[in-house]
Amino acid sequence: MNKVIGITVIGLSIFSMNYAIAGLSTGIESTTPSSGKINFTGVVVQATCSINLVSSTQINLNNTVNLGVMKTTQKETPPVYFYLKPDPKCAPTFKQLTAVIAWSGSNFNDNGLTNLGTSKNVDIALTGYTANSKISPVHLTQTNKVIKDSYTALEGDKKTFPGYLFSANLQDKNNQKPIPGSVLSNAIYNVTYN
């Protein structure tokens, strides 16, 4: 019986030794864990209002402002006024805040917006009016595309606040005679409140 026990002990010893040698020969190594730090950032803002493009008579314009007809003998057309009108239900949410209306797009130039239609020598002038700029309207160009206005006008009669006032009109480009054709351009607006 002693021999059996001896063989069993030697057998276990050989098995353990073989396992340890096999582990080293297969390339299994001990490694230290990798770790790192991740920063998470964000901003909490008040919910935004839906904005509608409306005419000076408060008719929904479906995102299109018709600038009318310009004759080749004209230097410019009369301005067409329109509003970016926030939903009146938002008025209490934005009480005492300033609206920042930022315009963007690749069609802005030094005169306003470049005409993408077939007419030549014509640009679209885009102007913003705020409570503070009624005397000096803000002409929007490729280097000046932000309007700030107080939303506190809604504190009075929330249902009659017309919105943020803008105008657009056709103008000859650098005093050149307009060439007949279509006029088309576009711009993107983004309204935030702070």
UniProtKB/TrEMBL annotation:
Stored InterPro entries: Adhesion_dom_fimbrial, Adhesion_dom_fimbrial_sf, Adhesion_dom_sf
Pfam family, one: Fimbrial
Domain Fimbrial-type adhesion: 38-193
Secretion signal span: none
Protein name in UniProt: Fimbrial protein
Gene source species: Photobacterium piscicola
